[in-house]
């Protein structure tokens, strides 16, 4: 067969059915074969960075490999920020990138592509010859899955029409397995837990499987502990009586008070970074048991009294078994009083004290988020772009499970939400996607890819919290009594723009406009954009 068909077959051999990309002369025949010969689905994007972000979002919600393709030169350099984001997100992504012909020294798109890729932290694999394509593809896929980062497979353009004697290379990736803990490490952990009087069980992104959730709740009930999560595991325990929510800088007052009173934190699959630990303050004067399947995650940010390498569910259930054998008694820290305090906080949060802060021209951000959370289907995929609005969004908007939450600010960039949202929608078909973005992020990275969402009929609702400014910079000017004018923008109304792009757009200036726009969510038949005007001087932090 021809080389370009061999590339398509190699993708299919690894179970790839979906590819996002932007075509050029070095990858167009591969994608034609992928669709026409293999029967795969190729989704064209507007920008190469958007294609890589879509692959990232697809991997996040599908739990598998995300795949994107671009051509050479400027197409690859356009992916740099997206590659860094995926590296920091620890997402398995394969980027099939064309390259200029080795003999074509004067090609104006020629660039040392390996030198572009490696500084991003992504891996790089070269297709060595037309005859090695299946093997090279297998190595790239294995590395992406095993190393949990993007890997670029570099494909010289001159191979496209070469004849190939194709031989399938079997997938060489072994899925993660449950690892039993070392008895000595477990003994130290159980000793600390058994002697604790006020324990808290904390779940991170590495402990969000249904099996881990059930096991951690069994442990928490056994020792009488409330439960909390990191941001990346948000809403894992939502609805449980003793759920403290997010631990750290995003904790509400009842949760923070409870965590500070605790004398032992038992963390599973959490990095325990400075945001989860509030610069270490929530771990002060506490015993720390830290469980993680990845050994290099232990003691990385926070020193543990009992580090345990092992699968979260297996370790939690083993601890319960050992406590049962020792006839250890539960602590009672998860008391009826605590349940009542948490319920009272939840009830108070459902009441909207900020309604009066909306005007005829702007809507209070807290009011808008609360009403949006109630109006959008609960079984959703939730994606946040970056911006000052995000601190309210983290705690006011919810998802059915952590795998339905797509975090796009690992690199601290704005504008990465739309591409992720498109891919996330394809990774979780049947589940509508809600993207929350700011006006700056939408203009930087969302506008062009909104057209992509329309073109592929993505079930997507985009909500733009529009303060007509770069909010993070605006507040810095204000805090120093300086004129913030250079951080503000006179954008067009995004509602009519979205409609012109083939979606359905709404401009929201007051609560009546908001109700009308939210009502339209139920009858959506295409991507929807809701442009909510907010006051840049009234974008408060959570709880204020």
Characterization of this structure:
Helix 13 (365-375) packs parallel to helix 19. The protein is α/β, with parallel strands linked by helices. It contains 19 helices and 18 strands.
Kindly estimate the percentage of residues that lie in beta strands according to DSSP.
15-25%
* Overall form: globular
Termini gap: 64 Å
Structural class, judged by helices and strands?
alpha/beta
Low-confidence regions: none
Helix content: 25-40%
Q: What's the Cα radius of gyration?
A: 25 Å
Mean pLDDT, as a whole number? 94
The number of strands is 18
Strand arrangement across the biggest beta sheet = 2-1-3-4-6-5
Largest sheet entry: 6 strands, parallel
State the oligomer: single chain
Total helical elements = 19
